[in-house]
Design a protein that fits this description.
mainly alpha, DUF6435, Lacal_2735 family protein
């Protein structure tokens, strides 16, 4: 019953991943390739964590 109100950590990570990719795309459009590379690397780390959680679930 109380599990109903718990947030799904995978959903939160997915949203953070999408925000990082969006920020990386905007940095690329602005010509800031260093920021683009950094944000893309952070997004890939989030994606790895999402995949790890998916593997644990089932």
């Amino acid at each position: 019953m109380f599990g109903l109100f718990n947030r799904d950590p995978q959903k939160k990570l997915q949203q953070a991943y999408e925000r990082k990719l969006q920020a990386a795309m905007e940095a690329s459009r602005n010509g800031d390739m260093r920021a683009n590379a950094t944000l893309t690397e952070e997004a890939e780390a989030l994606l790895a964590e999402i995949n790890r959680l998916k593997a644990q679930k089932g």
